[in-house]
Design brief:
The chain has helices at residues 2-11, 17-51, 78-100, 108-138, 145-171, 176-183. By secondary structure, the protein is mostly helical. The longest helix has 35 residues, at 17-51.
Length: 184
């Protein structure tokens, strides 16, 4: 909590912005790219929702997504969520790897493992996202665009926090040799 207060206090003084960015670069970059990833997710979600508003509008090979329903009600949020997940996770992996955590992993095997770890962690948070959207939109049967938008934003905030923890602790954690390299 003290760090958050310090960040806001420093943010109010333009003369301290450089020091603020230097001290909290990773968090600031994660928030910036997290917000952009959330935007990519929400925009993609609603584009797909407009393209496929109902089961009848979905191509035959994607109709299985409408059977992913446990309540017997509408499951129209599943396909847009899956597609927005694929697009936004790919965007997040690239930005997190390059700009947020500045991964120095080299070699095909290590890069593949890192990417698979990233996608596995994001797959878990996809299920969190699906459960939240199901509980807030599908289960109660609320058909209101603004309500659905607010539910999606809430879901993305929860997912954003979980994703940072997984990325920091598991995917992009610095090994001892990388820490030594960074000091030099």
């Amino acid at each position: 909590m003290d760090k958050i207060k310090e960040i806001f206090k420093m943010a109010l003084h333009p003369s301290q912005w450089k020091e603020l960015f230097t001290r909290y670069r990773e968090i600031i970059m994660y928030v910036i790219f997290g917000a952009l990833t959330t935007l990519v997710s929400i925009v993609t979600y609603f584009i797909i929702r407009c393209i496929f508003p109902s089961e009848e509008s979905v191509p035959l090979f994607l109709k299985w997504t409408y059977r992913l329903n446990f309540s017997g009600g509408d499951s129209s949020t599943v396909l847009p969520n899956i597609i927005s997940w694929i697009v936004s996770v790919t965007f997040a992996y690239i930005t997190n790897r390059i700009w947020v955590f500045q991964s120095k992993v080299k070699g095909f095997a290590k890069n593949t493992l890192q990417a698979l770890s990233f996608y596995a962690a994001r797959l878990f948070t996809l299920f969190v996202d699906l459960i939240i959207m199901f509980l807030l939109v599908n289960l109660p049967g609320i058909e209101n665009g603004l309500y659905e938008f607010c539910a999606k934003v809430f879901s993305n905030i929860v997912v954003l926090v979980l994703n940072y923890v997984f990325s920091k602790v598991f995917v992009f954690r610095k090994r001892e040799e990388e820490k030594e390299e960074d000091k030099n």
